[in-house]
Description:
The protein has 494 residues and is α+β, with helices and mostly antiparallel strands.
Amino acid sequence: MVGGSTRMPQVKKALAKNFSEIEIKILEPDEAVAKGAAIHAVNVYVNNQKSLTAKDFESNEEVKVTVNGDEKELKAQDYKENLTFSPEMMSIGGNTREIVIATTKSFAVKVENKEGIKSCFNMIIKNEAMPSGFLEVSGNFSTLYDNQATVDIEIYENDYMDKYFEVDEDLKIGDAVLELPKNTPAGSPVEITLKLNKEGILDTYKSNSDKFNLDTEELRNSVFNSLSEFIRNEAVLRDINIELEATYDSRLFSDRNTDNSGYIISLGYNSMKNLLVFSLLVSDELLPILKLEDPNINLSNDELKNILFKIFLTTIALHELAHIVYGHIDYNSKDKNIRKAFESEADAFSTQLMFGYLAKYEDVNNLFLGYCGDTSSDSTLRLFGYVMAYYFGFLSIVSKEISDYHPTPIKRRFSSMAASEEITRYICIKDISNEQFEVEKSRVINIFIQSFYKIYPKNNNYIDMLETTIYMSKLDTILKNSGIKKFYKIGKNK
Length: 494
């Protein structure tokens, strides 16, 4: 049966009732005639085959046919069976032609951003190949609100070739509801999978990120093990008594232990899961940049996501470590300017230490050395600048006290370049002259600035630069006048 009317449920029901022993399948009835005509045209007009009649098919007589330029004799019954997708019959000029099923429509889900703007996001694009007879596409999204109870998944069938288009309710073909656990924070990952089969039937699968939970725990353990080993092996750190803990709190912070016997770096699971989602989004954006700069780079989105997560989480932990070793927690100031200066000092510390820390993780080290060759190369510094630009972007998202106790994101990015001197010392030979050192430091700073502006081009304006310059010029004075040095746990004689 052919024609659009065969898609009517009552037609399928009637067929199933009258032919109960046969599985009823719908094979794109809208296009069946056209596809059959195309196959027939190839056989008759391209391969010069005889146009057989119904009577011929009833005969067991052999008929002469030309296949790939060779004349053959086939029984009509056999010939009938080969009048479909047979590679032999579908050959042109001696070359086998493969018929590949392709999507005839695009399929989208409705999404909403933080500003409340809704649009449709095409997960499956029209004319995509389906070589195995089906197409499966997964997309990672996130919740918008804290304590969100459900996610409404709305599916739209359309003819658009773009990734995004305006919502048109006339194109909606179905919906589903995903129930979420209690106390689910904003930004929690939601995975949606669309599977399209050759009959044109679409299946939808949804998940509230069990995989993300497993990935987060595995990667978190890797970071915690590495940091614990680092703290144990550094005498000045080991003596301070620092503990790492993962909590079900959403915060990322450092503080004194409850019994004041030492310090604790606490990283909340919910924030870490959000960080993993952020890492995935960054990998989608950063990987094309890296491949454009180096077409030979062999890295998947998932691998880059894991690397970014390790770097981001480690840098956060090192930032909190800085608050401990530089005495910020013991000083416990309520002065906003001093608190902002402390944040900038911690940013510089974590940035410089993270650069030398890259070799702690094999996959991270392989990326930087495999992609760049050595730690002093422009490409290494540029990649590191990209990563740190995204890192401060994440901090600007999660910091709820940013306006009062944290510098603005643009200031944090540039104040972190106070680490450029230590990074330059790290990559330079010891006997370099002061003049050569200053040239190298300028190179490092310039590459970092270029990387930041490539990721955040909108920040490239005179006012931001002026405000940041003024802010950075005050940092040393604020820190010196605060008397913070007497609280330092390391480098007291600096």
